[in-house]
Design a protein that fits this description.
Number of domains: 3
Order of helices and strands: EEHHEEEHEEEHEHHEHHHHHHHEH
CATH class of the largest domain: Mainly Alpha
């Protein structure tokens, strides 16, 4: 057997594999002998069928199978030994006059090669990093929400400015059918308030979604509509009143603090506000980090220039899936996936050049932390270590779940690396301003 590689250019190569009878004949003979021992053909005792008959019936198909196995094994070994970084998979060149009765076989495979490129992380203040702070107004609102949640509730005959109204919002065209509760004075404008004030259980009210609430994100929660739809949503919904209540806010006293923090860590209003601020900014940090990683990704893709073997990749995409694609479909698929592929190559190079690795033990610990957080949400604050390990093991056996956690952990590691290596332009903002700037 002879395997050679010819470079067409910096991004494309062809591997040629020549196979002769001596490369596979011994294995074919071994298999035919085994077939002969097991063959059960009328007129012959088992194990005594003439070898000529076995060869005639099975010889060619066995030979083709063995050549294909040998071809795949040899090609994979060659790529590994040569340490070739390739994109996609080798594409076999189809020969119209290929003859399986020939003495020797010659196969050719097209390769798409990973480009060589450099990554510049030294540019200063090219990427914006947000430091999201909890404002006094946000803390005031959360204190108010806490007092409402723990307050005393009573039923009302009709809606007032300060009452809670529960009912179902419906719009058939947009497939909205959502039961929600809102505070009447959260509505935007006197016109909307007047429609609801005085309403009784069973009343049906027509409301316009445009500027229905001061905050569009509140409307998003109440209607159960996707974030990217809510800002431009301008429809009429019917609201059927099902319940009207009034809440007497809970006092900010020891009884409330003990309900909120059984460990006694909060004993004053000042400490409560500090705790709210701390917890809110932890959540904001997660959103800020995700935005930062997105911004870094965009920056690296836009500013790291290299060519790709686009023609090869489109040809590979046309045949890689279960259903073959036309040339136009493959081109469209390539354009759709090109940006992701570019970042994948950039990410891989950064990890390789900076020895950023992911150990399995780290993945297990990360999975356990994720599980611990999930269990805490359901009131299990101190799960047993053995229980965490068992659940983590089951999750990581699921390839899709394991891949998702691995991707999250890699992103976390890379973000830590980027924060050390890149100088950002930092901007302190409120959460409201962050949403406006990032998701405008």
């Amino acid at each position: 057997m002879n395997i050679t590689k010819e470079n067409i250019d910096a991004l494309n190569a062809v591997v040629k594999v020549d196979i002769v009878a001596g490369d596979y004949q011994e294995k074919v003979t071994e298999l035919l002998t085994d077939y002969r021992k097991k063959a059960d053909i009328p007129g012959f005792r088992k194990g005594h069928v003439p070898m000529g008959m076995i060869k005639k019936q099975y010889g060619k198909s066995i030979m083709i199978d063995e050549v294909n196995k040998l071809l795949q094994e040899s090609l994979n070994k060659f790529l590994a030994e040569e340490k070739l970084d390739i994109l996609g998979n080798p594409i076999p060149r189809i020969k119209e006059n290929f003859d399986w009765d020939a003495e020797t076989f010659s196969f050719e495979f097209e390769l798409g090669l990973v480009p060589e490129f450099e990554i510049d992380l030294s540019q200063k203040n090219k990427i914006k990093q947000y430091n999201i702070v909890a404002t006094d107004s946000l803390i005031d609102e959360e204190v108010k929400n806490i007092q409402t949640r723990y307050g005393k509730m009573s039923s009302l005959d009709e809606a007032t400015e300060h009452s809670n109204v529960t009912g179902t919002f419906i719009n058939e065209e947009k497939e909205i059918n959502k039961k929600s509760t809102f505070l009447v004075n959260d509505l935007k404008g006197k016109k909307n308030e007047k429609k609801v004030i005085g309403a009784k259980v069973g009343d049906v009210i027509a409301l316009e979604t445009k500027k229905l609430f001061e905050d569009d994100h509140k409307l998003e929660q109440i209607l159960g509509v996707a974030h990217d739809v809510i800002h431009d949503l301008d429809i009429t919904v019917t609201f059927t009143v099902e319940d009207i209540t009034k809440t007497e806010p809970a006092d900010l006293d020891k009884e409330l603090f003990d309900k909120l923090f059984a460990d006694g860590s909060v004993t004053t209003v000042t400490e409560l506000r500090e705790k709210i601020k701390e917890d809110a900014e932890k959540q904001f940090q997660q959103q800020g980090d995700q935005q930062l990683l997105n911004a870094i990704t965009e920056y690296l893709v836009e500013n790291t220039k290299f060519d790709l073997p686009s023609e090869f990749l489109q040809k590979w995409l046309a045949t890689a899936g279960e259903k073959p694609l036309t040339a136009d479909e493959a081109e469209a698929e390539y354009k759709k996936s090109e940006k992701g592929l570019r970042y994948q190559l950039i990410e891989g190079k950064i990890m390789k050049d900076n020895d950023i690795k992911l150990e399995y033990a780290e993945l297990v610990e990360y999975a356990k932390g994720f599980i611990r957080t999930q269990m805490a949400q359901f009131g299990n604050m101190n799960p047993e270590e053995k229980e965490l390990e068992d659940i983590a093991a089951r999750i990581l056996q699921n390839q899709e779940e394991a891949q998702k956690l691995q991707s999250q952990l890699i992103s976390q590691k890379l973000l830590g690396f980027f924060k050390e290596k890149i100088s950002f332009k930092t901007k302190e903002v409120s959460y409201e301003d962050f949403i406006k700037e990032v998701y405008k």
